Amino acid sequence: MQEKPDIPDQVILSCLQTEYGLDCRGVEFLPLGADVNTAVYRAESASGQGYFVKLRRGDFAEITVTLPHFLKSSGIHAIIAPLETSSRRLWAELDSCRVIVYPFIPGRDGYEQALSQAQWREFGRTMKAIHTAALPPALSNAIPRETFPSEWREQVLHFQSLVEEKTFAEPIAAKLADCMQANCQTIHQAIRRAEQLGRLLQTRYRKFVLCHSDIHPGNLHLSPEGAIHIVDWDQPILAPAERDVALIGGCPAWSNPAAVNWFFEEYGRAALDPLALAYYRYERVIWDLAAFCQQILLTDAGGQDREQGYCYFAGNFLPGHEMDLARTVDPFPDS
Prior knowledge:
By secondary structure, this protein is of the alpha+beta class. Helix content is 44%, strand content 14%. A five-stranded antiparallel beta sheet has the order 1-2-3-5-4, covered by helices on one side.
């Protein structure tokens, strides 16, 4: 969220005091991320201890906090686990929001800072540990399983029809509609290929592993000391491992061949399916297109988030960016 929500700082501070026993002297809104339902803040105690505070509106699943808590307790150090409240819960309630508090670790994300060789290798080892984690039944049964659904593809086709039939007065919506029409053929090719691959994978995939489901540079946090942390466990899923590693080499920030090799030397490459990699690269673009269409075409609200959303949308079609990188890994891109 790029714009601060209409929640007084003092209300957040009171929640931290009441629910977590944290005597914080202030909170600072951080305009981070593309999720318009999530606002994040930095809070600071009188002693100077920092906390990362997430306010989440809308749907909330307990697994999004219980899972990272379990993984951290299991020895995967790249996970930042949420703090417990005074009543030993992993979140608190604040009006229509859930409040989740983490220790604040200074640093930059993977868009702002390139990973070193050591960090790429640690990233590979961490993803291997996550994908081989043995989950207790209570956690495993609470995590959705991959079904290769057509929902997002259908949404993008709906929006494609909408921009061809409707004129948008709001400037950002008009720009997005123009971009979508200019890239109509490319979008339809990606949807058709994702549909083909999804049907194929439904019949051939047997082994699912724990996946974060949203591994991209913005969800990799790099501390000044060189540690890496995987953040934002809002949508874990049991799925083919390719769901998580598809963007290793599949987005501009992570397309350096040497860096990709460092990652896979630690993670392992032999068992990866190129068709599954292609499917998840196409689907990643389609998910993003649908989300930004919802944000920009269905409402005029959002302020600065709208312009940022449009930039993310249009960036998918730039040479060497996500759409191109999906085709490069697909053995039969014109099927």
